[in-house]
Amino acid sequence: MESDSLKRSNWRFLVTAVVGGALVTVYAVAMPFIAPALRKVCLPFVPATSRQVENVVKMLRHRKGPLVDLGSGDGRIVIAAAKEGFPAVGYELNPWLVWYSRYRAWREGVHGSAKFYISDLWKVTFAQYSNVVVFGVPQMMPQLEKKLELELEDGARVIACRFPFPCWTPDHTTGEGIDTVWAYDMGSCRRRERQA
């Protein structure tokens, strides 16, 4: 009798531990994907299409200097830029995506020139980059436009995917629909602003 009671108690403890461990695991895996939706500006992870990546690479032709991808997701843009010879960096809030990006860069042989960091793009300075890529949402673009204008040199190029910047006029555009990519050269943006 006592033995049956002890066995039931052990089983209850084991079941409770397994269920608790599973819930903690689900929380740890899911929270980095859910948290961006709970922020003031919702920035969900939406992978770049292969056509978007091609269009970004097209906008980088004849360019030099370091590249940064703001909200680098699974690292597609950073890895593609590294394959084109750019020293490339991605900033991403989701640690799972950063680790996955690092693994992909290693697997594709560009881990020496493709780096990924867990960081909020609003807490990083981008003055050292000549090429900036962003997959933003309309709510963040006006504030990001101001931040980049303050930090970037005239020779820098900003490439926006999915949504253009609200006040800047693009110097180059390629693609159609969701694959459209807009390129803004900071020197041109500043000249147009002074003339207005």
Under the CATH scheme, the architecture of the largest domain is: 3-Layer(aba) Sandwich
CATH topology category name of the largest domain: Rossmann fold
Name the helix and strand elements from N-terminus to C-terminus, one letter apiece. Answer: HHEHEHEEHEEEH
Structural class: alpha/beta
Concise overview:
The protein has 196 residues and is an alpha/beta fold. The protein has helices at residues 2-34, 50-60, 76-83, 95-107, 141-151, 186-195, and strands at residues 67-70, 88-92, 114-118, 131-135, 157-161, 172-174, 181-185.
Structural commentary:
By secondary structure, the chain is α/β, with parallel strands linked by helices. The chain has 2 domains: 2-38; 50-195, Vaccinia Virus protein VP39 (Rossmann fold). The protein contains 6 helices and 7 strands; from the N terminus they run ααβαβαββαβββα. It has a 7-stranded mixed sheet with strand order 3-2-1-4-5-7-6. Strand 4 (131-135), helix 5 and strand 5 form a beta-alpha-beta unit. Helix 2 crosses helix 3. The longest helix is centred in the N-terminal third of the chain and has 33 residues, at 2-34.
